[in-house]
Every structure is written in C-alpha cells, then in structure tokens.
Amino acid sequence: MSKKHFYFGIILAALIGGLVAVAGFYLTRNNGSQQLNPLNDRQNVRFSSYIDPSEFTVPEGLNFVYAAELATPAVVHIRSTYSGNTATAKGRPMQQHPFQDMFPDLFGNPGQQIPKGHPGVPRGSSGSGVIVSEDGYIVTNNHVIDNASTIEVVLSDNRKYTAELVGTDPTTDIAVLKIEEENLPFLSYGDSDKIKIGEWVLAVGNPYDLNSTVTAGIVSAKSRSIGILANEAGTGIESFIQTDAAVNPGNSGGALVNLKGELIGVNTAIASPTGSYSGYSFAVPVSLVSKIVEDIKEYGTVQRALLGVRIGNVNAELAKAEGLEVNKGVYVADVNAGSAAAEAGIEKGDVIVEVNEHPTRTVAQLQESIALNRPGDKVKVTFYRNGELSSVMATLKNSMGTTAVVAKSEGQLELSGALLANLSPEESRQLGIEGGVVVERIGNGKWAEAGVAEGFIITAIDNKKVTSTEELLYILKNKRGEGTLVEGISPNGEKVYYGMPW
C-alpha cells in the first residue's frame, strides 16, 4: 500500500467517525429531552376548541378604540358644592342619602355632625355626566347633584362652566343640566331595547379629575331591579342594564355605550360591600333617559304615566298559592279604583305578560314599559286570566287620576280644601330635607278641620316620606277611611304632627 492510499484511508475513517459521533449526540439529546420534559409535549396537544391567537384577528367591530374616541369627549366631570349647614337643619339630622352605602366617597361621613349654631363648612361631591346635545344639555345622576348649591361642569378639554339644573327625576335617579355653549361634542342615543346579554359595552366616566376613564365589559342582565330607588310611596322605577364593566364612585352619571359609540345607558350604581367596584354595575337604559330628557325640556317636569295596579313577580310559590296556570309574568294583586287598569277591565288575579307586545316577565319590565309613556297614551296590555290570554287597551293616567300632562309651573295640587305645592329646591336646602309639600292655602275641608296652618310643610304621612305632591297623592289614594298621621315642619321651624281622618 502506498503512503498516498494510507493517508487517504486515515482521513476517510476520521470523517466517518465524526459523522457517527455527531449523529449519536443528536439522537441521545432528543431521547433525553423526551424523558426530561414530557410537559412540553402535553402542552402541545391541541383540543378541538382551541384556537391559536396567531391564527385569527379581532374583527374590526370588536375594537374598542372607535367607541372610546367618540364617547370620551362627550363625558364630563361634575363637581357639586353644598353650602351652609347641610348636616343639620334646626337641630334635626339630615337623613342619610340612599346611595350613601353604595358610594361612601361621594357623600362623605354621614355620622359627622356639625355643632349646633355652627354656620357650616361648604363640602362637595363629584361624578360624571354625558353631553346629549350640541347646545349644552347634560345628563347625570340625581344623587350626584341632589341639593347642591352650585354645580360646576368640566369638559374633557378642561373648559369649566357653572351649570343650571333644568330638572330631576328621583324615581329613576336622573337629572338634566344645561351649560351655555354651542357646538359641543355629544353622544347620540342608541337603542337599549335591542342590546343583548353577552354584548360588549364600554363604561366611560370622568372621575376624580382623571379626565376620562374607559372600561369594557359585557351586558350580563337586563331589566334588573336591585332595590336602591324604592321609596315608601312606591314610585321608584328600576329597570337597570347590568354589566361587568368596572364602575367606581366618580363614574356615577357617566356613559354606557355600545361599540358604535352610541349611548345606551347612564351608569348609576354598583353592587359592592365596600363601596368600590367588585363585579357588577348598573345603568339606567337610554330608552328611559331620553324620555325623561324630552319631558324635562318640554314640560319642566317628568310626565309619569300610571297603570294603577299593585303588582308582584310571579314565581312557583305564588303560582301554586293562587292557582295560576302560568309561572312567569306580573301578578296583579290589586287594582286602584278609577285607574287606567280599572277602566280597561284589568282585574285582581290577572297576570300581565306584555305591554305593547313587549314581554313583561318581571315587575321591572312592566314598570319600564309603562314609564316610557305619558298620561293620555294608550297601551295594549296582554294578560292571562283563568288560563286564557286576553288583551285590552288602557289609557294611562297621571298621579292625580287624569290624562292631562302637568307643567312645572302647575306643580300644585288642590286636595280636600287645601292648595298644596312642591317645596322648592332652595327651601329644601335651607331646611336640610329632601323635598316636601307646602300647604299654600287652606279652605274648608279636612286640612282646616285638623288645624293645619298655611305654610306647614308636609314631610311624611303615616311614617312614609313625602318629597312631592305625586308621592303625597299616591299615599293618600290608597287610604280607605283610615286615620292618618301627618308629620311636618311648622312655619316657625318646629316639628309638628297632625291626626286627621281620610
């Protein structure tokens, strides 16, 4: 063998040995990897419902940017100032606000009393609001501005205005403000009736001078009643949109919008043991909000239409007890004499399931359907009676039992020889009370016989708080020849009680 062949053989053997060594190394590493990292293989197993995020893009309609850009310029910050001794009035502690527990930061410490005779220290609260027209009309919650002496509005571009309070509706916790400006950004009304459970929504607020916050969530329920607006006169209306979009105290009065950037609700409350957001928020649907705004702008006050029934939700227990053949709907426990329901032929024991062909499976749904109307409007009421489905047309009435609309300047009531009127907001602030009814004139009748004096302010009847003539009339209309205890404030500021037959 020549030296040439010898060296060639050595080189070839070295190359073959190197290739074998490399191949063995990789085979050994792969086997070891399979033994040491079995979790990697398990995580790579694909389930039939799994979709790799890299395999799809979010549809344009689910992008929150468009709705947020439309909504944030139209949502404002609201600062309410309360001057004078608002904690007490003539030695009487002011009643805790119904939203105190839900939004403690908004209303301060209810237990803190200002010493008697102290002039009081101005205090304030804050919240959000929504511009609903380019000429400066703003919607917020009534509890954000209730009893405020001054209301300041701060726009998203930091312009500041003193707002005029145009009107309020405590029964839905909505208030309407007005600032003097033109060409403002505003939100168009959407259709809250068409939103569906599971639909994406944004909660937009302007709290704590943060100059807008946007949170996202889904609609988790509709026509929800949580008992925060209920009053003893039975006039509170709750039919909230429930979402899981985060809402905190400063967002109260802000906008709930759909992905088109349309207003579908006004954020009002949260369900929370701490006063901070913990899972659920609630908004007044825009179907009610828009009607309230129109009423206040046109008439100066909300036109509340009534069917005139006492109602409750149908459940399994009630259905069994009353022998009902349906397990969903609104049970008519009683019908007020002379009411729209009575004149239409609705009877005790009927189960209302539709109003104007909109389902009314709960009290909240029925209240919302009726509240969308005005006195004098006709509604189609569908109900079950003895297992048979029937429909009637009912002409809705106001709280005084007529079909007339009531203008703000006509906010008076003649009843049993007395002329009664709502206490003005300024008088309410001075007295430290949440509304009331003043006796403006006394003639022959029950009030004179009971010794009631002109100027007397009615604050409660049979321990049921009275803040307006509407509530007073509602309470008295349900009396049936009973003795009545009337509580109030005399013209000299003393608390007085009168007993009178009714």
What do you see in this structure?
This protein is α+β, with helices and mostly antiparallel strands and 502 residues long. The protein folds into four domains: 3-43; 60-302, Thrombin, subunit H (Beta Barrel); 309-395, PDZ domain (Pdz3 Domain, Roll), CATH 2.30.42; 411-501, Pdz3 Domain (Roll), CATH 2.30.42.10. Helices cover 22% and strands 31% of the residues. It is built from twelve helices and 28 strands. A hairpin with a 2-residue loop joins strand 18 and strand 19.
Gross morphology is globular
Number of domains: 4
Low-pLDDT residue intervals, each spanning 5 or more residues: 30-56, 85-122
Structural class: alpha+beta
Query: How many helical stretches?
Result: 12
Specify the CATH class of the largest domain. Answer: Mainly Beta
Average predicted local confidence, pLDDT:
79
Major beta-sheet overview: 7 strands, antiparallel
Strand residue content: 25-35%
Would you give the CATH topology of the largest domain?
Answer: Thrombin, subunit H
Helicity, as a percent range = 10-25%
Quick take:
This protein is an alpha+beta fold and about 500 residues long.
Topology:
Layout: H1 3-36, H2 38-43, H3 64-71, E1 75-82, E2 88-89, E3 92-93, H4 104-107, E4 123-131, E5 137-141, H5 142-145, E6 150-154, E7 160-162, E8 164-169, E9 174-178, E10 200-205, E11 213-224, E12 240-243, E13 255-257, E14 263-271, E15 280-285, H6 286-299, E16 309-313, H7 316-322, E17 330-335, H8 340-344, E18 351-355, E19 358-359, H9 363-371, E20 378-385, E21 388-395, E22 412-415, E23 418-422, H10 425-431, E24 437-442, H11 446-449, E25 457-461, E26 464-465, H12 469-477, E27 483-489, E28 495-501
